[in-house]
Amino acid sequence: MPETIPFDVFNPGCPSRKAFDQIFSRWGILTLSRLTPEPQRFGVLRRAVGGISERMLSQTLKALEEEGLVTRTEWDEKPPRVEYSLSESGLRISQSLNSVIQDLYGELDKRRPG
Predict the structure, then answer these.
(1) Model confidence pLDDT, tens digit, residues 103-112
(2) SS3 per residue for 12-67
């Protein structure tokens, strides 16, 4: 049986690094934080992630789908309809990211002049 090597995101050769880079890019964090388990259309998601271009959102969703965090559903309709949602893994990571975001808001709020 081959030896199981633990993941080490600090090692540039570790396969976890690619997933880490995708998730923790600016657009990866914002996109995962805005996605939900319920399906969302591309346009709705683009408006929810302020400042992201269509091209960047498309690339980000594709990368997150490849990492198993996002599910893409394409409907055979005219015009075509595509929806995106979080996978189980994506939901767990999204919840953690949203918790970090809320903690950041709390810390920033403490710095406001009173």
Answers:
(1) 999 999 999 8
(2) CCCCHHHHHHHHCCHHHHHHHHHCCCCCEEHHHHHHHCCCCCHHHHHHHHHHHHHC
